[in-house]
Design a protein that fits this description.
Layout: H1 3-15, H2 37-51, H3 65-81, H4 85-99, H5 102-121, H6 129-146, H7 150-161, H8 168-178, H9 192-201, H10 206-220, H11 227-242, H12 255-274, H13 278-291, H14 309-324, H15 328-337, H16 346-356, E1 368-370, E2 376-378, H17 381-410, H18 416-426, E3 433-435, E4 443-445, H19 447-466, H20 474-496
Antiparallel strand pairs: 1-2, 3-4
Helix pairs in contact: 2-4, 3-4, 4-5, 5-6, 6-8, 8-10, 9-10, 9-11, 10-11, 11-12, 12-13, 16-17, 17-19, 18-19, 19-20
Length: about 500
């Protein structure tokens, strides 16, 4: 047995131990650095089989005829040698992705059903739910693609939903998976709204109840003659909001409860109005008005003295005119580096934060910051104040910068082509970089190639805004934010050799 065979035997023995759908630990794979083509190929095949779930995720090299034939031969050989059903399933699935041969998809579905049955047999309220959901979702995807035994899948799902031993959380995930499935016609889902109502009655978690009832509404809207069902679901949503009401003791430290309740009463009114329940709507409206008396705000008096306001505006306008009159290169570099954009030095930020931290209201509240995902984190008063001032300053700077961009475009000082030319030829954005993922060939790219599409969209939206037309910034926001995070990782890796 040669060295390659020893390495592969060890890899295959480790793969045989896989017992769930999670992405395998990368450490079970041998290092492909300085490895033979045979080892590299095997690692690529195994890793992709275990992780890839659709054709958009595979690299172009897999689409080459010779490579594909070699891959099919390898996978079919592995199917004959492994005794691990999860591996066989993944191999059949990957074979279908590579070849689009329905024979492989049918084999994969049959094997996935075995996995699903095993998980279902040991399913508990808190464990194995993720494996169950992932497996069911893949089965549904493949079944929809090749129209294989759709009635069998519908019958299985129906039996799961009627199983009284399954908790509502699992049933909610099942309904969420199938809620937009094309194989479930209106006749197949006619019992689902009533099921959602029953699940909500037996559940105590108000957040889960709301999600279940919203799904029930989704199914009810797909059914004819469903108005009473919709009314009942909206009424249940209103009742669920009522259960969210908390008693307010009138103390200042608990004043947030009154605002929380006000929001709940407002939602109750909307739901009961949709439910056509006049009695409950009127009661919610009455409670909404009564609760207004509990709403309290601490008044913080702030006096800002305006000195020479007209002169200040005049200086700002002069500064703006001088910025947009600069050469294109200088405008771009000023925008990139934040030069002359009103960003306060750290020393002044700290002085302002120290002064504001002495305010009386900070003695009554804990200071926290909340991110975009609604995660809160405690922060000391000084850094909280500094964070607030920085947020205000950066907003003004960004507004000023955007005005410069729009005006420069109007003056033809700035355009997509000019911006790309400067970044490509005079900055690191044009430098060629390479990466070599563990299971792929070496990839070459430049930073500009990563953002050019989104950058073009940004300038298109700016032009639309100048012309008073509707804008759509989704492409710009979705792509650029992620790409610049990647650039930061590149910078750290290049400068220190480390990973972030």
């Amino acid at each position: 047995m040669n060295k390659d065979d020893v390495i592969l035997k060890d890899l295959y023995n480790k793969l045989e131990q896989i017992s769930d759908n999670d992405i395998p630990d990368i450490n079970i794979f041998p290092s492909i650095e300085n490895s033979t083509p045979k080892i590299v190929f095997a690692c690529r095949m195994e890793y992709n089989s275990l992780t890839v779930r659709n054709s958009t995720q595979i690299s172009d090299s897999f689409k080459e005829k010779d490579f594909k034939e070699k891959a099919v031969e390898y996978l079919e050989n592995r199917i004959g040698k492994t005794s691990n059903n999860i591996l066989r399933t993944k191999y059949y699935h990957f074979l279908y992705i590579l070849t689009h041969n329905n024979r492989y998809a049918k084999q994969a579905i049959d094997k996935y059903y075995l996995i699903l049955s095993n998980i279902y047999g040991i399913l508990t309220n808190g464990e194995n739910i993720n494996d169950f959901v992932i497996t069911l979702r893949v089965i549904l995807q493949l079944t929809e693609e090749i129209k294989y035994e759709t009635e069998n899948l519908k019958a299985r799902i129906s039996s799961y939903l009627s199983d009284n031993s399954l908790c509502n959380n699992i049933k909610y995930y099942i309904l969420e998976i199938i809620h937009d499935s094309k194989i479930f016609k209106s006749t197949d889902i006619c019992d689902f709204p009533a099921l959602c109502l029953q699940m909500a009655k037996n559940e105590t978690n108000t957040n889960l109840i709301e999600n279940i009832l919203e799904l029930g509404l989704h199914f009810a809207r797909r059914i004819t003659d469903n108005q009473q069902l919709i009314h009942n679901l909206y009424e249940a949503l209103g009742d669920n909001e009522y259960n969210n009401i908390e008693q307010y003791d009138g103390k200042d430290e608990n004043m947030a409860i009154a605002f929380y309740n006000q929001n709940a009463y407002s939602k109750m009114m909307v739901y009961y109005k949709q439910a056509k329940n006049e009695e409950k709507y009127n009661n919610a409206a009455r409670l909404y008005k009564l609760n207004k008396k509990n709403l309290k705000l601490i008044t913080i008096k702030t006096v800002i003295e305006h000195k020479n306001r007209e002169k200040f505006v005049e200086l700002i306008n002069q500064h703006f005119d001088s910025m947009v009159s600069l050469p294109t290169d200088t405008i771009i570099f000023n925008l990139c580096l934040g030069k002359n954009m009103f960003i306060l030095p750290n020393k002044e930020l700290e002085e302002l934060a120290n002064e504001n931290a002495k305010s009386l209201h900070f003695q009554y509240f804990d200071t926290k910051v909340i991110d975009i995902n609604d995660n809160s984190q405690g922060m000391d008063v000084f850094n909280f104040c500094k964070f607030q001032f920085y947020g205000l300053v950066i907003k003004k700077s960004l507004d000023f910068a955007f005005c410069i961009i729009l005006k420069s475009i109007e003056l033809k000082k700035l355009s997509y082509a000019k911006f790309v030319s400067v970044l490509n030829n005079k900055t690191f954005f044009g430098e060629k970089l390479t990466i070599k993922p563990i299971n792929y060939n070496e990839i070459s790219y430049t930073w500009m190639s990563q953002i050019d599409f989104a950058l073009k969209s940004f300038f298109d939206q700016c032009t639309s805004q100048i012309k008073g037309k509707a804008t759509d910034w989704r492409t710009t926001i979705d792509i650029l934010s992620l790409r610049f995070e990647g650039f930061l990782r590149d910078i750290i890796q290049i400068s220190s050799g480390g990973q972030l």
